[in-house]
Specification:
Enolase-like, domain 1; nine-stranded mixed sheet; alpha/beta
Length: 380
């Protein structure tokens, strides 16, 4: 069996209610987009994967990567991964593509991906991740709504010009809600973006000041308060935070096992959040196993799109299920229209699919409606 056809799509779906994402200050998001790959074997088995994208920055990726992948046995995971590395030497981030072969392998074996990779099926606890920087009153409404619906916590966003404003927002928010309900905070400094308007980049000193200012707020974790590659400074911050009872989380947009190996070497995080739509399945299995072996925690970033959420659910099955999985507060940021069976929480839990592969029922009419096929290559 060989991969005989490769197709790539730009997907862009209008969002019902445009919003201002905390991770891009000053920018209004009107569409939710990603790159969709479909691989087809010579026996007509298909597998899909999705990669993060802002616009059409992957426009040339097919020409570069497809010749490395065409003709490969989809069950040869090692050579597939090696080819993705070979195709990345000119700066491309390709590991997200390997989900498609795990999808194919699952279909060949008649097993869901979580079972193929050795995971365990249990109800997945989820927390709601808010998307915008809000005043305390609005934060409290989000928190109360999530609590009523059974979610296991809420992640708040901060991105003020001054650290004292951020501290005040969190302190005031905590006073307005149940003191026992879990709250997390995302500073969105791991990959700082300023195209919509500049806000200060956090330093280690600022991060420590913020942590000291919220020490009495019973915060479960602080996420990405420093640039993603400052492994040693992140470790310094973790050492400062742990006596205060606040965990440090991050790593969502780093790239693969080599980055996580550096984080583990320096002791950067308590909670690792590697996203399959960046890391891919193969490398993420290595990451999760290493994290768990060190007695640390894993829960992926999963707020990009519905298919990405489902992919991350499969790898979450390798964790100990003690840290909840991210679920975007703004449901419109998930692309439910592309799936006939979108993952939907019930009383704060998601269920892993039992169908082979990803267990996905993709609506190709909707893909054609919201997608643009920009690359196709077949075996001659």
């Amino acid at each position: 069996m060989k991969i005989s056809k490769i197709e790539l799509y730009h997907i862009s779906i209008p969002i019902d209610e445009p919003f201002k994402p905390a991770w891009i200050p000053g920018y209004t998001q009107t569409h939710s987009g990603f790159t969709l790959m479909r691989l087809t074997t010579d026996t007509n088995i298909t597998g899909i994967s999705v990669g993060l994208s802002f616009a059409k920055e992957h426009a040339g990726i097919g020409t570069m990567v497809a010749p490395y992948l065409l003709g490969i046995d989809p069950e040869d995971i090692e050579i597939f991964h090696k080819r993705l590395i070979e195709g990345s030497y000119f700066g491309l981030r390709n590991f997200w593509m390997d989900t498609a072969i795990y999808d194919i392998i699952g279909k060949i074996r008649g097993e869901p991906i979580w079972k193929v990779i050795g995971g365990k099926k249990r109800p997945i606890p989820v927390y709601w991740a808010s998307a915008e920087v809000c005043e305390p009153e609005k934060h409290s409404k989000i928190i109360n709504k999530a609590r009523q619906q059974g979610f296991k916590g809420v992640k708040l966003r901060i991105h003020a010009n001054t650290v004292h404003k951020d501290i005040d927002v969190i302190n005031q928010t905590r006073k307005l809600v149940d003191s026992n309900f879990p709250l997390m905070i995302d500073a969105n400094q791991g990959a700082h973006v300023s195209i919509g308007g500049f806000v200060p980049i956090w330093t280690l000193e600022r991060a420590k000041t913020f942590v000291e200012g919220i020490r009495d707020c019973d915060i479960s974790w602080l996420e990405e308060p420093l640039e993603m590659h400052k492994y040693e400074e992140i470790a310094d911050l973790r050492e400062f935070m742990n006596p205060l009872g606040i965990k440090l989380a991050g790593g969502e947009l780093n790239y693969g096992w080599n980055d996580v190996r550096m984080m583990l070497h320096f002791g950067s995080y308590d909670i690792y959040q590697s996203d399959i739509t960046t890391y891919g399945v193969y490398d993420n299995i290595k990451c999760i196993n290493a994290v768990m072996d060190q007695g640390l925690k894993y829960t992926p970033h999963a707020g990009s799109n519905t298919i990405g959420l489902l992919i991350n659910m499969h790898c979450y099955s390798l964790s100990d299920y003690t840290v909840p999985l991210e679920y975007s507060y703004r449901s419109s940021s998930y692309n439910h229209s592309l799936l006939k069976n979108p993952p939907t929480p019930e009383n704060g839990y998601l269920e892993l699919p039992d169908e082979p592969g990803l267990g996905i029922q993709l609506d190709w009419d909707q893909v054609e409606k919201y997608g643009e096929k920009f690359f196709e290559l077949k075996s001659s």
